[in-house]
């Protein structure tokens, strides 16, 4: 059975609740990894792992523990690329699957936007987490869990 790994540092609370319910319902081992304590309900299936405060400490811990066939839930594109290289599936908290076919273009776009921002251009940030995002994520997670049990 695959394990769910959650890059919990930037995971919206609503997405965290969806993940916990799905893990309990499907008895899927799930780890929330962050550099701070994550409040989670007591569970046999859902655990939290706090790592040291340091640049990419949580990301490095996730990559070290990921196994082929696991699912990483993250919107961190460099982390997603490492996970894909290790044979894991990657889903954003908006329900988008990232894979070898789309990750490089997304990283290049992110790098381009970062260059624009550093030159003083206002590019805006990510849009807020909407009810549609919540619904799309919950549906995508349910589909992935049903297919990969």
From TrEMBL:
Coiled coil: none
InterPro entries in the record: UPF0178
Pfam families: DUF188 (PF02639)
Family indicated by similarity: Belongs to the UPF0178 family.
Name the record gives this protein: UPF0178 protein H1D44_16340
The species this protein was found in: Billgrantia kenyensis
